[in-house]
Amino acid sequence: MSDPGLLREQRRERLFFVGLAWPAIVIVGVSAMAPIFWILGQSFQTVAGEATLGNYDKILSSGLTWSSLGTTLALSLSTLIICVVLGVPLALALASANRRVANRVLILIMLPLWTSILVRTYGWLVLLRRDGLVNSTLAWLGVIDQPLPLVYNFTGALIGMTHYMLPLFVLPVYAAMRDIDGNVVRAAASLGAGFWRCVATVILPLASGGLTSGSMIVFIYTLGFFITPAVLGGGKVNPIAIRIERTLSTFQDWGGASALGMLLLLLILIAGCMFAAIRRLAREKVHYA
């Protein structure tokens, strides 16, 4: 049986640390929740301040809203897929490399995050335009006869978003793979499992927590992207964030913009719950395995 004195001491210690964190929790909670409740209230008001459900009826009956929703999901899913395809092999290579080499490569991977997102986005605009470095190089090599449409479209926005999110995906995946006991992998190899079988049946299941966390970061973060689609999309790519901005700047419609904001928040909450459920299922599967 547990010692009652020890339990009281542990309870007292937990209360002490909660007390230390309480001021920060209150400040962060109020700062985060107050604007959300204000936007929620605005979404149910007319311009004259009267209560109404018309803002939600207007946005849900508009084809532009559903088009923006589809564009948002397409951008987020496409960014996630590319980050998984590029990030998992990179994280695996880093986890298998010497720690000193891995740390140096990680610094290179993190370098883009030290630069303003606006600067990086306009950098991609210079690289991807019709007379930019990418098209000029491909034409010089004889690969293309006409410049490729790499900017002011979905492709340009996707490239910029992937460039921003890839480091944020690699970090948790690399951390999870680095924590895997090498003896487990060597045991699987000694029992006849080849490289790809070890990856599929040992490494990826054990790194499922990092994979889920990285995927959640990428997908949820990109749902609210604004600058990159606005610049690299050239007005042709309009996710919900851009529609919110145009609803405010063009029509000064706080009610409609707030309703769109709550729709985006609902989408984020649904995505968060889905990833949390996936992570829990993956953890239970690894535990029982």
Automatic annotation (TrEMBL):
InterPro entries in UniProt: MetI-like, MetI-like_sf
Family: Belongs to the binding-protein-dependent transport system permease family. CysTW subfamily.
Any Pfam family matching the protein: BPD_transp_1
Keyword Chaperone on entry: no
Keyword line: Cell membrane, Membrane, Transmembrane, Transmembrane helix, Transport
Membrane topology of this protein: Multi-pass membrane protein
Domain ABC transmembrane type-1: 69-275
Protein name per Swiss-Prot or TrEMBL: Putative spermidine/putrescine transport system permease protein/spermidine/putrescine transport system permease protein
Cellular component aspect of the GO annotation: plasma membrane
Any one Gene Ontology BP term: transmembrane transport
Organism: Rhizobium azibense
Location(s), subcellular: Cell membrane
Principal localisation: membrane
Entry-linked SUPFAM superfamilies: MetI-like
